[in-house]
Design goal:
This protein is 24% helix and 23% strand. It is of the alpha+beta class and 178 residues long. Among the domains are: 45 residues; 75 residues, no CATH class. β6 and β7 form a beta hairpin. The chain is rod-shaped.
Length: 178
């Protein structure tokens, strides 16, 4: 006669998938339950995740915390199609930005800096080694400071087919008058 051994009846843990639980009662050591299963011996096992680390533990090492339910583990979001991507804002839209936008290349930005009365030798020493984009940004920031300090009016310079000119020196200027 064979006797079959019965599995001990062990109740499931007091928490469910999605709950946030403390490991060994430590409120600083919080895990999210991602799964539960009962092993062959009747012991309950908890699958848990913390900061991207996933492990399984005997269910008894966790105790329920008063924290809200954890969100389900994050699924990677689908990649946005190119037409759905937002275009980065590259201009602050002030008169200095509008003036610099008319420059076809970095030489045009340097011409604007010269017309604004900036010391080009000192400026080239400070930013001349940078990429064209960073030079443009550096010139723009310095022009903006001079404009805010009342030392420069970006609307006094206009673009013509011959290059940048002071508005007063351009007799056939057809733009808006101030």
């Amino acid at each position: 006669m064979t006797t079959e051994t019965q599995k001990p009846i062990i109740p499931p843990p007091e928490y469910v998938v999605g709950d946030r639980v403390m490991y060994r009662g430590d409120p600083e050591n919080i895990w999210s339950i991602t799964g539960l299963r009962q092993g062959d011996s009747g012991t309950w096992w908890a699958y848990a995740e913390q900061h991207g680390t996933k492990q399984n533990f005997p269910a008894g090492v966790f105790s329920k915390t008063e924290a809200k339910k954890a969100k389900a583990p994050a699924q990677s979001a689908p990649k946005a199609e190119p037409e759905q991507k937002k275009k980065r804002k590259t201009s602050v839209g002030d008169p200095v930005a509008s003036l610099l936008a008319e420059a076809e290349d970095i030489q045009g930005c340097w011409k604007i800096a010269e017309m604004a009365g900036m010391d080009l030798d000192e400026l080239r020493e400070k930013i001349g080694h940078l990429s064209n984009g960073l030079q443009r940004m550096g010139i723009g920031n310095r022009l903006r400071k001079r404009w805010k300090d009342g030392e420069f009016d970006p609307e006094s310079i206009v673009w013509t087919p011959d290059g940048f000119m002071y508005k007063n020196d351009c007799p056939d200027f057809e733009g808006e008058e101030q």
